[in-house]
Amino acid sequence: MGLFDNLFKKKNCDICGGEIGLLGNRKLEDGNLCKDCAAKLSPWFDGRRHSTVEEIRKQLELREANKNEVQAFHINRIYGEDTKIYVDEQKGNFMVTSAQDPKNGNPDVISLDAITNCEIDIREGRTEVMREDADGNEVSYNPPRYSYDYDFYICLYVNHPYIDDIQFKLNDDDITIESRGSGINPELNATYRRYNALAEEIREAMLNRPVKAKAEAVSAEPVVSASPAAAVTCPYCGATTTPDANGSCEYCGSSLK
Question: What is the rounded CA–CA span in Å between residue 253 and residue 237?
Fold first, then answer.
């Protein structure tokens, strides 16, 4: 009974002092944390189990002070789609959030000078496309066909009190390309090329610190990085293409209107 008594013994949060429910405990290195206090931690923080009560208390103090930084944040540039990087050029800060209103949710306001590196992580997945034979069995095509999925991730590494890195997916949906052979060149796909260009734009901007001199006037309207246009399959040449300004295929020039 002693073991079970200890297991179900009520605990109190070492931060707020409140009672922790049966499934609400978040273990710390030297104490306990309730789920309400845990929800106030940075979404980019992943070292909770190896943090002390004092370290968590200090982070929550910084997070509370961060609310004022968020309200004072002046957005000049925006990069990304679902999850976005917001840049305040005047103060030299940035924040990353998927909230529709970037000033909700208390996103961490971080100095651009804290960025130590920015990497692009392109993740590829491959699945063989099968067909059904006369007996209803799934068999390979000859030659085999494969479906490739690509996801673009931005990885920002920072020198920060409680954040080591910020990683988020750039594309909303998988970029899927089907091949009738063993290899593929994703650069031939217009959607892949556009996300690759957007990722490179973000990396260049983050590493080159897009901060204007304080004496310069800062635009009141944020500059939004262009999102990739929707790609379509050309019915004339079969290429995956993004229509140009005239609504024509970028490869064969046929009208797609």
Answer: 9
